[in-house]
């Protein structure tokens, strides 16, 4: 669900917001400060690159679990998130589901901060920007998806979520000077939105479709790229660690929901067990642990490969909704979803900039970061 979010959080410490403004050089810390910081320094490094460092450099230990298995696990976790939202809203109000999700996700990241002996960011300016990103990337879209699934199936919500790369590319071409429109990108956007119309059954006048629920799901998907662009304009070059920034962001989103939820819902009189377990799993596994897995993937295989999880999420969400929840499926849903994903893939494809030297010397993260949203 936040496939690009985490990739951009990992990369935002190096991505410049404007070509006229040189990126800030990240503050180097002592090697003993954090045993894992060397892994985050080069997100595009391959699994074999670390063991072939020149000059007798100490090799980083390989992860115990192959990245392909973690990639598959992440696809399953995020694909099932829409099913968990649906089950959670069967017993609790949407704001309560979102609050629980953020709470349990925050607890996982706080535990990771304690384990790694890292601290939350400092500075009022950083916290102010994180409050905005928490709203745009967590509190608002999570709440909109929860409300949308009151009236639309989880399969449709998962497919609407897959439009985020399309919204992101369209907005970045307007708001970010380094993302310039090309024929390939424009064609991808056109194909992608044609797929959206196919999913929605535009030729039938959107018959049988709940307009409010679908609109909320699409707005949730639109909220993500707005948040990504805000990050690139405000927090690029931050010297804080990725885990610290994300932990603070989820913490602020939890506080926001803690304030809003009592205003729109009353406290539950009883706690339905199955929906409660769904909310716990959605937060702890689908939000907290999933983000930690994504960090490792981005650091090991790079954001481009890690971001491919985008194309598996709607497939798994659809399969889970049909097989487990018994949701109906018409031909236009999978066909339209395939067209959406093809358009999204086209907008993000194209020639990659070649490295000036394919040497075995480590390359700074600022020169390796992908420019995809």
From TrEMBL:
Belongs to the EamA transporter family. It is a multi-pass membrane protein. One of its GO terms (cellular component) is membrane. It is found in: Membrane. Residues 43-60, 348-366 have a biased composition (Low complexity). SUPFAM superfamilies: Multidrug resistance efflux transporter EmrE. The lineage of its organism: Bacteria, Bacillati, Actinomycetota, Actinomycetes, Kitasatosporales. The chain crosses the membrane at residues 95-115, 127-148, 154-174, 186-206, 212-231, 243-265, 271-293, 305-325. This is Transporter. The keyword Membrane applies. It comes from Streptomyces aurantiacus.
